């Protein structure tokens, strides 16, 4: 049995079926996923990290089909939206708009004791929800109980202000959104305190990964035709979504990408959006 190192530093036995499952969820055909898993398994060594395993699988998939490889890289692509987290707020706002919510980012709401900046304000069906976003650029980092307590305290202060003024509260509930995972203590507390959690794979149904695939709102960081530097330049210019490139080729021209390279990037963007 071969042991591998997870993102949080813990070890577990490598199980090929888990690798196959992660590729199937990204839309990889079963025959391709099983072949890639067999190829990766032959290269596995004791103590390899999940990042190294992902890179091996990604390279094999990219040789087969760039669009599928891009979708498989989604979780890593979200990690690349940093480091400030601001692009993550804009990205989540776009995903939630595609889910039918009206959204506003970085909204200041008055509390009883102080003002609070709400990362994303969500409105749907006559209800408003304040979402606190916690972006992490390492896959093993988990959003913990301390963060959930902080979120509850902030929203309680906003609710207290409304009650003191005899007005309807600006928000009807609080969300805590992360691109990674939650600790079990954070989950238990949030269920008790009425905080809606949205993580990469939490809850089992209706999680961030599923929202992305359902809406087709993909970040430019998934694109295999762009270098890390080019992705960073586009993010700095406020271009974060694949469909933005598909609709505005000038965004690429502005950072010096033209000709065949530009055509390749736009083609991949269009294919991913359609997929």
Provide key terms for this protein.
275 residues; alpha/beta; Trna Endonuclease, Chain: A, domain 1; DNA polymerase, domain 1; 3 domains; five-stranded mixed sheet; two-stranded antiparallel ribbon; 13 helices; 17% strand
Kindly describe this structure.
By secondary structure, the protein is an alpha/beta fold. It folds into three domains: 3-72, no CATH class; 86-215, Trna Endonuclease, Chain: A, domain 1 (3-Layer(aba) Sandwich); 218-274, DNA polymerase, domain 1 (Orthogonal Bundle), CATH 1.10.150.20. The chain is built from 13 helices and nine strands. It has helices at 16-25, 30-43, 50-64, 66-72, 74-79, 86-98, 145-165, 184-193, 208-215, 228-236, 242-247, 250-253, 259-274; strands at 3-5, 11-13, 102-110, 115-124, 127-134, 142-143, 173-178, 181-182, 195-198. The strands form three sheets. It has a five-stranded mixed sheet with strand order 3-4-5-7-9, sandwiched between helices. Strands 1-2 form a two-stranded antiparallel sheet. Strand 1 (3-5) and strand 2 (11-13) form a beta hairpin. The mean pLDDT is 90.
């Amino acid at each position: 049995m071969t042991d591998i190192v997870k993102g949080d530093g813990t070890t577990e036995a490598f199980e090929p079926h888990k690798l196959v499952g992660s590729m199937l969820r990204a839309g990889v055909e079963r025959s391709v996923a099983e072949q890639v898993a067999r190829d990766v398994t032959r290269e596995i060594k004791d103590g390899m990290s999940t990042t190294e395993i992902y890179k091996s699988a990604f390279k094999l998939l990219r040789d087969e089909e760039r669009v599928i490889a891009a979708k498989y890289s989604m979780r890593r692509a979200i990690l690349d939206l940093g480091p400030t987290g601001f692009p993550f707020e804009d990205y989540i706002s776009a995903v939630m708009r595609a889910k039918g919510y009206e959204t506003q980012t970085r909204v200041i709401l008055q509390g009883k004791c102080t003002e609070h900046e709400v990362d994303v304000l969500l409105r749907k069906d006559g209800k408003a929800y304040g979402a606190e976003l916690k972006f992490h650029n390492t896959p093993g980092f988990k959003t913990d109980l301390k963060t959930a307590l902080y979120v509850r305290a902030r929203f309680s202060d906003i609710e207290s202000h409304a009650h003191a003024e005899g007005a309807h509260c600006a928000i009807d509930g609080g969300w805590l959104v992360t691109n990674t995972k939650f600790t079990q203590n954070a989950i238990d507390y949030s269920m008790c305190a009425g905080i809606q959690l949205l993580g990469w794979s939490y809850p089992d149904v209706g999680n961030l990964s599923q929202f992305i695939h359902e809406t087709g709102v993909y970040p430019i960081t998934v694109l295999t035709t762009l270098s890390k530097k080019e992705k960073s330049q586009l993010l700095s210019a406020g271009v974060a979504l694949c469909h933005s490139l598909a609709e505005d080729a000038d965004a690429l021209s502005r950072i010096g990408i033209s000709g065949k390279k530009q055509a390749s990037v736009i083609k991949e963007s269009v294919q991913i959006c359609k997929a």
